[in-house]
Amino acid sequence: MTTREKQRESNNLAGLNIPTIPNAPLLTPEDKTHFGTLTLKKNKLLGLYVNSTYEEELTVYDNTYQNNQSHSLAFKKHLSEVYSIFKKQFNINSKIVDVGCGKGDFVNLLNSESYFDAIGFDTTYEGDSARIHKRYLNDTDKINANVIVLRHVLEYVPSPHTFLELLYKIFGNVDIYIEQPNFDYTVNEQVFTDITYERVNYFTKKSLKNLFTKSESGNLFNNQYQYVIANLENLSHKYNAEFSNRDNWIDIEFYSLFSKLHLKIKEINILVEQSNNTFIWGASTKGCMFLHHYLNLIKSTEKIKFAIDINSSKFDKFLPSSYIPIKSDEFFYKNVSDNDLVIISNLNYEIEIKKDITINSDKKIRVITL
Question: Which of 131, 203, 240, 258 has its CA 20 to 30 A from that of 191?
Answer without folding.
Answer: 240
